[in-house]
Amino acid sequence: MNDFTKRVIDIIKRIPPGYVMTYGSIAECAGNPRASRQVSRILHSMTAKYDLPWHRVIRKDGSIALPNEAGGLEQIVLLTAEGVEVSVSGKINMQRHFWVEAFLEENDGL
């Protein structure tokens, strides 16, 4: 497993209940801001093996990436159970639920 993949897994595991991160913010925090699609692939292939909280990873616009029939509804249910506000249109309140601690730790408090 390469270093980027290890960092992505670690970051996803550290997202606390009630918070979300975006594919792009995880990629940036892991050292490659242009690798959001790679984060998606890692999440898809490693969730079961590493028990990743996949439901806490969303699109940069605050929306759920998965279609309803492919897990989107389950993601909304899981997030709502953790106290994440999901609007009727399926968007998360990013000002309230976006987790930035990982950025602060990885970037020496920037």
From TrEMBL:
<dbReference type="InterPro" id="IPR014048">
    <property type="entry name" value="MethylDNA_cys_MeTrfase_DNA-bd"/>
</dbReference>
<dbReference type="InterPro" id="IPR036388">
    <property type="entry name" value="WH-like_DNA-bd_sf"/>
</dbReference>
<dbReference type="InterPro" id="IPR036217">
    <property type="entry name" value="MethylDNA_cys_MeTrfase_DNAb"/>
</dbReference>
<feature type="domain" description="Methylated-DNA-[protein]-cysteine S-methyltransferase DNA binding">
    <location>
        <begin position="3"/>
        <end position="84"/>
    </location>
</feature>
<protein>
    <submittedName>
        <fullName>MGMT family protein</fullName>
    </submittedName>
</protein>
<keyword id="KW-0227">DNA damage</keyword>
<dbReference type="InterPro" id="IPR052520">
    <property type="entry name" value="ATL_DNA_repair"/>
</dbReference>
<dbReference type="Pfam" id="PF01035">
    <property type="entry name" value="DNA_binding_1"/>
</dbReference>
